Amino acid sequence: MTTAIEIGYRAIDTAQAYGNEADVGAALRTLGVPRSELCITTKVRPSNDCDERFIPSLRESLDKLGVDRVDVLLLHFPPADGDVAPSVRRLEEAVRLGLAGHIGVSNFTAAMMNAARSATSLPLVANQVEFHPLLDQRVLLRAATETGIPLSSYCSVARGEVFKYPLFDDIAKGYGKTAAQVVLRWILQKGVAITTMSTRRENIRANFAVMDFVLSSVDMDRIDVLNATHYRIVDRPRVPDAPVFDPAATQH
Ligand SMILES: NC(=O)c1ccc[n+]([C@@H]2O[C@H](COP(=O)([O-])OP(=O)(O)OC[C@H]3O[C@@H](n4cnc5c(N)ncnc54)[C@H](OP(=O)(O)O)[C@@H]3O)[C@@H](O)[C@H]2O)c1
């Protein structure tokens, strides 16, 4: 995290389920970045998404992070029964109590995005979902436009799977960039905010340097072809809470 902060990252993505909120908080205290510069996101784990545990669990997260409120609070996964309105009301309560600046969701299907949109008049600032070139997420992109809930990506480089495709190196050469930078730029040009993770200084640095080039529409189209791979990482049965995306997302 020290490297990321030095390079200029200010958006921090954590979650109750990651078990690292206390470490993130300790690192932030050591680094001394002004709070106003940071955008801290955490996510409520599904077992805390009920009236009794939601706010107490959030207060516990804030204690661990060493902050009065998070900038963005997400539901980590949709509720098991698919009824999103009660969960959205709990998010609203977090804002009302001043414990969260903004709210959003994660792993929501298009239908759930619509239901969430109808359940609140507050802005929903993200649906954080698996998003990379090896997965067709056109249905979610359309839902983002229709609902005004922007997508943000996770597994942005498909945990390294993208690097098995020479196309990204081919395209990267033309821009003097790396395959990873091409992948991240493709995500940005889809209108999706990026969440990245790396343990290596050179990769952390590379992932930050994607604002100084633009992929041509021809190269965007060449990458789009790989959506048909339909490679998923956060999926059932390994992750039982993983969304079953709307069927059209798998059609071409
Ligand atoms: N909402 C959710 O349900 C959910 C689910 C999963 C993840 N997330 C969030 O998304 C973040 C990122 O997702 P992720 O870690 O699962 O997948 P990812 O970003 O696709 O993959 C991370 C892996 O890619 C490698 N990598 C990163 N940048 C690279 C580069 N420039 N060149 C080569 N390799 C590179 C890293 O290796 P090195 O360390 O060797 O660089 C790391 O092993 C997580 O940290 C988490 O905050 C959210």
Written account of the structure:
The chain is α/β, with parallel strands linked by helices and 252 residues long. Helix content is 39%, strand content 13%. It is built from ten helices and six strands. It has helices at 2-7, 21-31, 54-65, 85-96, 110-119, 138-147, 166-175, 179-189, 201-208, 217-224, and strands at 11-13, 39-44, 70-75, 100-106, 124-130, 151-154. It has a six-stranded parallel sheet with strand order 1-2-3-4-5-6, covered by helices on one side. The model has no long low-confidence stretch (mean pLDDT 96).
From the N-terminal CA to the C-terminal CA, the straight-line distance is 40 Å
Query: What is the spatial order of strands in the main beta sheet?
Result: 1-2-3-4-5-6
What is the mean pLDDT?
96
Determine the oligomeric state from the structure.
Answer: single chain
> Roughly how much helix do the residues carry, as a percent range?
25-40%
- Low-confidence segments, ≥5 residues, pLDDT <50? none
SS summary, helix count: 10
Order of helices and strands: HEHEHEHEHEHEHHHH
* C-alpha-based Rg, rounded: 18 Å
Bound molecules: NADP nicotinamide-adenine-dinucleotide phosphate
Query: What class would the helix/strand composition place it in?
Result: alpha/beta
User: Strand tally, please?
Assistant: 6
Shape: globular
Strand content: 5-15%
Q: Which sheet architecture does the biggest sheet show?
A: 6 strands, parallel
Would you spell out the secondary-structure blueprint of this structure?
Elements: H1 2-7, E1 11-13, H2 21-31, E2 39-44, H3 54-65, E3 70-75, H4 85-96, E4 100-106, H5 110-119, E5 124-130, H6 138-147, E6 151-154, H7 166-175, H8 179-189, H9 201-208, H10 217-224
Parallel strand pairs: 1-2, 2-3, 3-4, 4-5, 5-6
The structure holds NADP nicotinamide-adenine-dinucleotide phosphate (NAP).
NADP nicotinamide-adenine-dinucleotide phosphate is lined by residues 13, 76, 106-107, 128, 154-160, 180, 195-200, 203, 206-207, 234.
